Amino acid sequence: MPIDSVAISLSRIAVIARPSLEWTKFTINTIDKLIDNGIKVFIATGRIEKGARLISDKFKHKLPIITTNGSRILDENNKELLSIFLKNEVKDFLINFDYKSFGDEIFINGYSVNNWFVVDDTYISFYKHKRLDKKYSPEKISREEFKTFDYNKIFFVGDFNHLLQIREVLRENIGEFVNIAFVSENSLEIYDKSATKGNAAKFLLKKYGISLDEVVSFGDGLNDIEMLQMAKKGYVMDNALLELKQLLPDFEIIADSDTDSVAKKLIEVFNLWK
Fold it and tell me: What is the pLDDT along the chain (274 residues), one digit of tens a residue?
């Protein structure tokens, strides 16, 4: 199970991005112990708020969350601190873009604040087999209605090779305005240039008066790269996207994210059980 990224302050803060709904009790208890020891923990994810809260509610304490790849930030009481939307011209391009010409299986998704929208039934078969967390699902609306919303993130789901072709077209046409990142081989995500997990983490670090020099990070997706690079020390998961490993060849690789590897590294970094 991918984890996105985790940024850990060596003294006061932990930022956990794309956490798993299937985290083991061992990992949950480890993070709870971090909080008990005075370490501030943030959840940072590509999911919308309701998905992030499915994770944060597993812990004993209320946590701030970074959602939709840094496009929204909410404090521990669910007060919105920041929300960044795609520019209208970008939204219009993506909605009118002929993505089906690259593959019939491809479908468009939109995250608008805490809503998740799709426009055709292609999503049904994909999420039936691919999604392990069935606790929330997209709402199908008409293409015309889809156009009326502002979006923190729009993403295309489909075959990896088809999405690679789409990425090149998007880079040529709207690349100066947006981040275009694979969070997995099946999901190509588009969000505003100013919205990254790294920038959102910096926002919260500033709020709590914590230096970047205190941060350690973990990641496995291309939407994690800014957070990995900003930290004093970054770790790449063994099951990370190959492109991420190639972009960060000097970063230490630790075991797959579904093996409690992050929790074990946290214990090592913070000497939790000593």
Answer: 444 444 544 445 555 554 666 778 998 999 899 889 888 888 888 999 998 898 889 999 889 999 999 999 999 999 999 999 999 999 999 999 999 999 999 999 999 999 999 999 998 888 776 655 557 889 999 999 999 999 999 999 999 999 999 999 999 999 999 999 998 899 999 999 999 999 999 999 999 888 888 887 888 888 888 888 888 888 888 988 899 999 999 999 998 877 888 888 888 887 776 5
Per DSSP, what are the bridge partners of residue 250? Answer: none
Query: What pTM, to 2 d.p., does this model score?
Result: 0.88
Q: Of 112, 194, 107, which is closest to residue 155 (Cα–Cα)?
A: 107
**Phi and psi dihedrals of 49, rounded to 5?**
-55, -45
Do 25 and 40 sit in the same domain of this protein? yes
In this structure, what token pair is assigned to residue 12?
A: 């006061």
CATH, residue 27: 3.40.50.1000
Domain shared by 258 and 220, yes or no: yes
